[in-house]
Amino acid sequence: MNLFLTCPPGLEPVLAQEAEALGLPGPKPEAGGIVIHGHWNTVYKANLWLRGATRVLIRMSAFRAMTLGQLEARLAKVDWERFIGPDVPVRVEASCKGSRLHHGGAVGTRVQEAVRQGTGAPIAEQAEGALRLFARIDDNLCTLSLDTSGALLHRRGHKQFTGKAPLRETLAALFLRACGYDGTEPVLDPLCGSGTVPIEAAEIALGLAPGRDRSFGFEQLPGHDPARWAAIREDGRRRETPDSALRFDGRDRDAGAITGARGNAERAGVTAITRFEQGAVSALAPPPEGIPGLIFINPPYGGRIGKVGALKPLYASIGQVLTERFQGWRVGMITTDAGLAKATGLPFAPPSAPIPHGGLRIKLWQTEPLG
Ligand SMILES: C[S@@+](CC[C@H](N)C(=O)[O-])C[C@H]1O[C@@H](n2cnc3c(N)ncnc32)[C@H](O)[C@@H]1O
How far apart are alpha carbons 322 and 95 in whole angstroms? Predict the structure, then answer.
């Protein structure tokens, strides 16, 4: 099967690295994701283990279509029954870009009709509980992709407290990898909110599979093998013993965030190696173990013009505290505004390409170990 694993644009090479490290065959970055080839085992493994992918799609078919007649003729030839059973409702989402066929609604109706005729499956109006089928026409090329993930993959099932501006787990994992984190050094997030980064880092250190406690869309597909899946998933729940000095710390000045982060860590099963404590950046000190590692920061961005200036003192204070007290630690920081990054005074290398996040474009800024 041809599989397309989606991720935010700009992070495709990082996801490709992760897939490669997981032993998934020959990942090739494309706009918005990576392509791999594989069997059902690959679908299971990618959904269960990849921390950075947003969804895992099966590319069922790709063909050129310039008219609705051509589209209908090609849709009639698709082997629908191979992937879609008669019982599960299917939700079709169609889009067109730079093509002769430019009306997503008309394309969607034709695809729905072909699915109904080819499988007998009911068509769902709502995405909830339905199998999603994406029909995308780009430059007159129609690609049909079936979602095997179900709920988006950042929904690991543990983060019930989300705080004000939470980072998606998938993005946190990709940024940690981009910062060179491999599970063998401490990670500290001084503005941790719901604890996404320390929890993600702790799970990586323990070798836990991110999808170990959730269900997936592929469980509804006709080719699904429950016994094989149960064995693969069990493997994802086995934890390794990390270095006993390894700790994953989160601080936040908001007491509610700290209580919420502790709850999230408990549900994820990483309480033994995470520590969440209330405190302002100005009072931040290195953890007592004294082994330098990675400081990852996701400060408030400001977003709207006018608020950015008000955040400069916070960024300056972050920079001052880290420069004075955190020799030997590397810093990774995401923010929308180069002026805010500069306000820290930290010796950042040139930032990453911009990455879309919640309607904004963020960049990752990194330092070498601080001197
Ligand atoms: C963008 S949120 C972080 C979200 C987090 N990455 C998550 O996934 O939930 C920024 C956090 O910084 C905290 N914060 C703002 N100013 C702070 C300060 N001076 N000291 C400590 N925490 C602060 C806020 O309470 C908020 O939780």
Answer: 47
Atom of ligand 1 nearest to the CA of 314: 19
329-365 in b/e form (b: 16+ CB < 10 A) is bbbbbbbbbeebbebbebebeebbeebebeeeebbbb
**pTM reported for the whole predicted model:** 0.95
- Model pLDDT for residues 244-267, shown as the tens digit of each residue: 779 999 999 999 999 999 999 999
Share above pLDDT 90 across residues of the chain, in percent, rounded to a whole number? 89
Please report the pLDDT score of residue 239 as a whole number: 80
Other CB atoms within a 10 A radius of the CB of residue 3 amount to 25
Q: From the CA of 192, how far away is ligand 1's center (Å)?
A: 6
CA of 299 from ligand 1 middle (Å) equals 6
Give the tens place of pLDDT for each residue, 338-371. 999 999 999 999 999 999 988 889 999 999 999 9
pLDDT above 60: residue 305: no
Provide the residue count of the chain.
371
**Domains, the chain, ordered by start:** 2-147 (3.30.2130.30), 169-208+217-237+246-366 (3.40.50.150)
Separation of 266 CA from ligand 1 center, angstroms?
20
Ligand 1 site: residues with CB under 6 angstroms?
163-167, 191-194, 196-197, 252-254, 257, 280-281, 298-300, 314
Instruction: Tell me the CA–centroid distance for residue 27 and ligand 1, in Å.
Output: 35
Atom of ligand 1 nearest to the CA of 279: 21
- Does the pLDDT of residue 304 top 60, yes or no? no
